[in-house]
Amino acid sequence: MIKVQEYRPQSFIDFTKEENVTAYQDALKKVRAELVGKHYPMVINGERVDTAEKLTSLNPCDTSEVVGTTAKATIEDAERALQGAWAAFESWKKWDMDARARVLLKAAAILKRRRLEACALMSIEVGKNYAEADVEVAEAIDFLEYYARSAMKYSGFGSSETTWFEGEENGLMSIPLGVGVSISPWNFPCAIFIGMAAAPIVVGNCVIVKPAEDAGLIAGFMVDIMLEAGLPAGVLQFLPGVGREIGEYLTTHAKTRFITFTGSRAVGLHINEVAAKVQPGQKWIKRVIMELGGKDGMIVDETADLDVAVTAAVQGAFGFNGQKCSAMSRLIVVDSVYDDVVNAFVERAGALKVGTGEENANVTAVVNQMSFDKIKGYLEIAPDEGKVLLGGAATGEANGKQGYYVQPTIVGDVKRESRLAQEEIFGPVVSVIRARDWQDALDIANSTEYGLTGGVCSASRERLEQARAEFEVGNLYFNRKITGAIVGVQPFGGYNMSGTDSKAGGPDYLANFMQLKTVTERW
Ligand SMILES: NC(=O)c1ccc[n+]([C@@H]2O[C@H](COP(=O)([O-])OP(=O)(O)OC[C@H]3O[C@@H](n4cnc5c(N)ncnc54)[C@H](O)[C@@H]3O)[C@@H](O)[C@H]2O)c1
Ligand SMILES: N[C@@H](CCC=O)C(=O)O
């Protein structure tokens, strides 16, 4: 058994301290000097391989800046990566669990040393401010540390998990699935990207990682760390490319054993459908693990502490511009305190500074043109679906910089069945919904097809207990923000249309990537 201290999540950097701000700014300079403008080729079978065409990553906060480029994998590359991964699987599956876990622990150690570089790169590539970037890199380290330790419980012949039967030895063996595809989103391009790769890898699978098109550089940075930590050739195949091209090819392929996907509901459901169709030569039912979108609501009732509720609302709604699956996009307030809560929320949100990630603004630009246009579309219908109380414009500029800037927006008295109340917007836009009373608020909270995060701000024990039982979400928070799950502390994942509730960072997450064999020997 590997010798490590008990898992403890990373603490976050305190950016109220001047020395930490200075260190971050130094990291930004280093990243600008060493990583901006860099090109990341694919990594297939341990070799760096390039393509004629490239994918370009733009700075969303200053779209005149190209942050860097990656290769753009073709179908032939995807095929080669898949075959190479199956060849690597023959030896990787035989490695001791301890030895595989050590690779993750070493990667965590390297990332700890390069923590601020990873943060700074994300400030430039996807516009995260300092705290948002830091929380994400801390989560990436936590995933590596946590999954390394979790793997231990699947090591060896687990006869203790079965009931004793006289005259026989019985037990369960956990064995890896084979080769899978990990398809990740741009909004947590470091933590989710590496968590979805490290988990299957540590228990003996080989993985083709397909990062999001908008965040290829941080993905390349993380792959370098995994290789430096000692992953053998072919275990992690780095395949930046276009989702509907190579993603589609790999998810439909007969030789893909499992798919772990985090992204939108639309793409997730499409993958679920194509993966279910058995291809010629396919000899398994593909395992599909899905983490999808949300339309997350937080209820504030008349017993709530107003300051706690408003702080939770501002943090949950506007952290990383609402570009989190967990973001509070619906604030559901009971009628008797509606005006007080909403006025305070509008006032606090109105003080948020809009600017670049590098300037450490509270709200930065949204990720790309498609996202900007989509949010703009919702802002256009907002006056018909409620009252715009704050913001309401997609300005496309902040402090003289052209970028995908959208004002923090609050729309009041949104109709509960409207598009603003039902569809994931994925930007700094909050719909406030007026509820008659507590029960009406809970009904509204449960009235979407999603079920990812939710929250209640209330001092009523009875109501909190009712919510515990009846609020239909995978992650439920009381009297705090509804974002920011910590690995091992709040296992994360939703149900209903929000996903397969596989609970990343939870005690059973690795079981998603293994199959069990029961072995009986008669003595
Ligand atoms: N539940 C969670 O844990 C969680 C976490 C983060 C983000 N999300 C969700 O992700 C979404 C935002 O991320 P996004 O915009 O990158 O999502 P997206 O669905 O547009 O893309 C996700 C990934 O899928 C790939 N892809 C696109 N089409 C594909 C296809 N046909 N076949 C295979 N792959 C394909 C993309 O290239 C990308 O890598 C939001 O809906 C958000 O709620 C969920
Ligand atoms: N795990 C993150 C959300 C990831 C989705 O975007 C949170 O808990 O806020």
UniProtKB/TrEMBL annotation:
* Superkingdom per UniProt: Bacteria
**Could you tell me what reaction this enzyme catalyses?**
L-glutamate 5-semialdehyde + NAD(+) + H2O = L-glutamate + NADH + 2 H(+)
Regions annotated as coiled coil: none
Pfam families assigned: Aldedh (PF00171)
Give the enzyme's EC designation. 1.2.1.88
Q: Which SUPFAM superfamilies match?
A: ALDH-like
**Protein keywords:** NAD, Oxidoreductase
Looking at the record, the residues that make up the Aldehyde dehydrogenase domain are 53-519
According to UniProt, this protein's pathway is:
Amino-acid degradation; L-proline degradation into L-glutamate; L-glutamate from L-proline: step 2/2
The protein's name: L-glutamate gamma-semialdehyde dehydrogenase
Organism equals Deinococcus depolymerans
Gene name per UniProt: pruA
